Amino acid sequence: MGKEIERILLESSTGQISDTAELFLYLADRSEHVNKIIRPALEKDRIVISDRFADASLAYQGYGRGLDIHWIEQLNNRATQGISPELTFLLDIDPELAKKRSKEKDRIENEKIAFHQRVRQGYLEIAHPYPNRVKTI
């Protein structure tokens, strides 16, 4: 299911998706990922490494798209069943430089630079109160 959701979200041929629909699709993918991969692994005392998690929705749909942060936090909590990372690495890069380096251009990467600047600022604001969990590189 995750690959199909990813295709809908990222392919530009999908066309415009409303901000709220985009959020719910990411939340559905996250919920499935928690239920099928993360929770079973944690129950077996395994280490789980993910490339994105709840902070991504706060940054992209909250700060980037302007959806209500508190609402997203509540929905994230439901989708993740309260699971949160013990450690997060935030790779901080200037959005203009990142855009130049990017080889693949999906629907999100094709957004205007102002969107990516809001997302970056969002990640930095999300990280600020959690210096023990979020390590900015």
Protein described:
The chain has a single domain, classed as 3-Layer(aba) Sandwich (Rossmann fold), CATH 3.40.50. A two-stranded parallel sheet has the order 1-2. The relative contact order is 0.15. It has 6 helices and 2 strands; from the N terminus they run ααααβααβ. It has 137 residues and is mostly helical.
In sequence order, what are the helices and strands, one letter per element? HHHHEHHE
Low-confidence stretches: none
Shape: globular
Summarize the biggest pleated sheet: 2 strands, parallel
Major sheet strand order: 1-2
- In quaternary terms, these chains amount to single chain
As for the CATH topology, it is Rossmann fold
Tell me the number of strands.
2
In helices, the fraction of residues equals 55-70%
Rg on CA atoms, Å:
15 Å
β-sheet strand percentage: under 5%
CATH architecture: 3-Layer(aba) Sandwich
CATH superfamily: P-loop containing nucleotide triphosphate hydrolases
GO cellular component, one term: cytosol
GO molecular function: ATP binding; dTMP kinase activity
Domain Thymidylate kinase-like: 1-137
Catalytic activity: dTMP + ATP = dTDP + ADP
